[in-house]
Amino acid sequence: MWTYKRVIFYTTSIFICVVVISFSYYVEIRYPKMRSHGLPIATDTITALDRRKFIISPYYEPRLGQSVRVIAILHVSVKELYCIFHCSSNQNVFVRAEIDLHSDRFGFPYGTADLLCSEPSGCHYTYISFSSTVTTNTSQRLLFEVRNRPPQPISSNFTVCISTLFGNYSNVLQVIQSIEMYKILGASRVTIYKTNCSQDVDKVLHHYIDEGTLEVVPWPIDHHLQTTTEWRYSEGLNAEIGYFGQTAALNDCLYRNMYKSKFVLLNDIDEIILPVKDWDWSSLMENLQNKHPDTSVFCIENHVFPNSVTISGFDLWSHVPGVNILRHSFREPIDWKFFNGRKMIVNPRDVFQTSIHSALKHNRNWVNLEPGMAITFHCRYKMRNITSEGLIPDDILRRYNMSLVPNVDKVIQRLFPQL
Q1: What are the distances in angstroms from CA 395 to CA 88, 140, 327?
Q2: Kind and range of the H or E element at 298?
Q3: 3-state class of 415 per DSSP?
Q4: Spatial distance between the Cα atoms of 68 and 59, rounded to a whole number of angstroms
Q5: Given 2.60.40, 3.90.550, 1.10.150, 3.30.1300, which CATH number is that of 156-415?
Q6: Kind and range of the H or E element at 68?
Q7: Residue 218 in contact with residue 164, Cβ under 8 Å?
Q8: What does the angle CA 343 – CA 255 – CA 380 come to, to the nearest 5 degrees?
Q9: pLDDT at 327
Q10: What is 332-368 written as a DSSP string?
Q11: Burial code of 174-205, b = ≥16 C-beta within 10 A, e = fewer?
């Protein structure tokens, strides 16, 4: 016969079991274990080993023998680091990393670095970890899965790498227009590194994730280092790394897509690499490869279309925050006294290191494209103090109106219907 106390006892026992099982499931999902080693697997994009060393991700590197290349952010003082290969035989093999701090640190104390570690012979592994010294103590260490191992067949022609969205980025309309233009031009995939953005931009990003067009990589660099929008360090600047770790994000994106995409485009969200003679990137690259058969890095001249100078027409989507790039058809003339930050289309399998405006280490040749082949359409505030009369009319983007306008309108009607 059931008594009140027995009912309370069994109810309490069932409740405790449910809580324990649920907690165990949460721990297993949030902190997965490698059964053979029992160490947690790193899940964050940026993982601090300590205050001077940050791991982004390890990638298999078959171009330099059998080795692993680790994209990292390091303090300039770091001179020694070890990769620990966790072999399937339960053996841990320590390999001293060759540290290659990229040459474009721009004076900041932290910069993008490659850690190159040769595979130990006879070691079958999936994960590695890291140590500052040769030691057998592996407690409290995180495992990092080595990506691109083995390399997979190419699945797309063009991927756009964009870094980074920060400062609560809120230019909703230009984000939609840019991504729709990338799709028209031939992008199968867009990868965006996000530090933070507005709720409306986040809504747009989730739409393209659900569509299968977009991969958003969390980039919480500001949780680890003092950062800045300045690209070069100057005395008194309270920052440890430049421009939200942009070069580290670009290098990670390059390797993330190395064996997925035939070509990778490296540019910002307010930039679109536009063919001039051709209609899309496929026809452009076919012509360029015929003209430059031994070239793997194509640098495209930057042309600023000031968003402060507006033309009539295309007064659409006024209820959506952001810049309407269709209303900006005047560009600044090139002044060769000033640096022109070109953006790139690259064959990722021929590139070892990239910066923002050039590839630092690569196989084969590179070429600066003449503006008659392609330009970087850069819709932003004025770069120089030029009067409206000094700007050059250029309606290159309007060639795509018939496709761009209805595509953008479809997204806006779904996400931001006018009340």
Answers
A1: 59, 58, 10
A2: strand 295-300
A3: helix
A4: 6
A5: 3.90.550
A6: strand 67-75
A7: no
A8: 25
A9: 94
A10: PPP-TTS----EEEE-GGGEEEE-SSSEEEESSEEEE
A11: bbbbbbbbbbbbbbbbbbbbbbbbbebbbebb
Question: Which residue's structure tokens are 């005395």?
Answer: 235
Backbone φ and ψ for 106, nearest 5 degrees, come out as 60, 30
pLDDT at 3: 52
pLDDT at 73: 98
Residue (of 146, 112, 48) closest to 246 by Cα position:
112
Instruction: State the chain's mean pLDDT as an integer.
Output: 90
- Listed by start position, the domains of the chain span 47-145, 156-415
For strands 271-275 and 156-165, give the pairing: unpaired
- Would you state the structure tokens that stand for residue 124, as one six-digit string? 């079958």
Per 3-state DSSP, the chain is made up of helix, strand and coil in percentages (nearest 5) of 25, 35, 40
Whole-structure pTM value = 0.89
State how far Cα 37 lies from the chain centre: 31
8-state DSSP, 154: P
| Confidence check: pLDDT of 304 > 90 | yes
Q: Enter the tokens of residue 190.
A: 């867009």
CATH class of the structural domain 47-145:
mainly beta
Answer positive or negative: Cα dihedral of 322, 326, 332, 338.
positive
Helix axes 199-211, 401-415, angle to 10 degrees: 110
Residue 166 has pLDDT above 90, yes or no: yes
Smallest Cα–Cα separation from 187: which of 218, 210, 208?
Answer: 208
